[in-house]
Protein: VOC family protein
Organism: Streptomyces exfoliatus
Amino acid sequence: MLTDIRYVTIYVTDQDRALDFYTGGLGLEKRLDFPGPDGRFLTVGLPGSPVQLILWSHAAAAGQPGDAGVPGPLILESEDLRKDFEIMRRRGVTFEESEPVDYPFGVRVEAVDPDGNRISLRQQRKP
């Protein structure tokens, strides 16, 4: 029986640039970084979470998500999205919206990594 999600792959054209975005911009931590037979195996993750994102080197435009409004390959949850949004914006993260948007389920905003991958940031509505 399956028990956990361990890795999710995000395709990037420059692993060092992606590492800077995901750690310096979004605040994730670097986990693994070593050469492998098929290329550099580089991962990041949220502090305290076992799930890791593989920042896998790939040709430009490969694995890119669809148009605006379509969920990106990664959805991150926040306890205070408006506060996190301001911190990330000061760090240079690019967003599709000028401010987080209220929805019936809570609050959301879409960040964009240097390769155009859309990162959905969410905060659930508190009961």
